[in-house]
Amino acid sequence: MDQLRSRQIMFACASGLLLPLCFPKFDLGLLAWVVLIPLHLALDQCSRQRAFWLGWLCGVIGFTGIMAWVVTAMTTYGNIPEFISYAILLLLTTYLGLYVGLYSLAVVWLRELIPRYGIFFAPCFWVALEWLRTYLLSGFPWCLLGYSQYRELDLIQIADHTGVYGVSFLVVMVNIAMAELFLWIMPFFRGVHPVKLPWELLTTTAVCMLLSWFYSSAVLSDRHLKDRNTAISVGIVQPNIDQTVKWDASFREETMRRFDRLTAQLGTTMDLVVWPEAATPFILEREQEYQLRLTAWAERAQAPILLGSPALRFYPDRRPYLLNSAYLLDQDGAILGRYDKHHLVPFGEYIPLKSSLLFFLDKLVEGIGDFEAGPGSTTLSFSPKSWITERSIGTRSVKFGVAICYEVIFPDLVRRFAVNGAEFLVTITNDGWFGPSSAPAQHFAMVVFRSVENHLAFVRSANTGISGFIDPFGQILANTPLFTEQASYATIQARQARTFYSYYGDVFAHACVILCAVLCLFGYFRTKEPALTAATPA
Q: What is the pLDDT of residues 245-269, one digit of tens each?
């Protein structure tokens, strides 16, 4: 028995150690299709309680590797002692590991509930738990399993119906099928007559993979049929302002000179220039002198500038508060629109329950006060000059949505911009907090799925990188290295596209949640029946 338990622990640890390799910076996406096999082997002939602890152990190890950047953010830029940072990381990964623990418990429970066929529903539980992680306690859907496939465009186009959750479903299904096949083969080596081949599971998995591939191929075959009348030129500025001096007043002029120089490099052919989150180290609306300078730069570029800057507002009792905002500044000095960040970063932009339970904590992000959430998915618009001068299609404006930093990892939040008429999407961010860790690459990879889900092009401007452009089908057109001062541009498609996912959101994930709830009710009443029968007098 001790040997069996040791082997189970070893297998669970193996899956945990391999899991971070599936994501950037390692980028071994193909590994994701087999990474859970050791965990499933560990769950063979395992009790429910032990299955939970094995899954939890696997999850803690895996998420510790994925989320190691948390320590960098807290120690380097939050001035938190290193040992406290590691303790917070362990607390976070202990929480995230619970989801893998619950999944593992579900696998064993399903085997008992419906022998041979119960395992078919295990991917539904994985998806239901990923969906729960997206919303529970403000939500933290970082590195969902499907994101490991962001480079596999010929498989992930199903996300325009299922969201990233459908790709996670496929990956888990393949892992289960491979594990079940391995468990069927193993008795041959011991000279034991094997159990029946799980051909139903293998066939279902093969069919799902083929359907995904055929659908993705069909979608990608149409992506080159572009309407050139909807192409716009967008320039992005990556200033590479060190986080330690970003809010230093003595460095303000150097920051402005850098933006001036990089914006000038883009020339006068851009339809739109995009600066990163919190680009201005001041409140734009309160600094008339700097606002005039920005207007002059927009006039020189002959294009509006989208830039991040805090907005100051007041409560009815005149108490001030801040919004993390994106302004669209026209070349004549007019503010064409403003989007206020809706989903704030807990402990980064505000402290949950600060007035009561967590009054003793301060934010990890220094240099600026607490923020309030904006109203929601407001779209911005402007008239691309190239549509007027080159193609003579009138003065029609183009609408786009802006997701600020953390917001882009929430699929439902981004798809609401598409529903509201966005023809392309922008995300502005400051990933300087992450340092040279894997977090900027992980963050960038998730944007690929937002493009695929809505079939809209994405523009990303990041203070220290990674900045870049993604086409409506997830193809990375260009991206910049970390910690470089750079101006880049690309031609993207503005499309009035609406996918099933854009219209209906997480229907696939909701279906998985409902199916899991039905199975739980079925299991509950099934276990009650023998007890009721035993209690009935003869």
A: 888 888 999 999 999 999 999 999 9
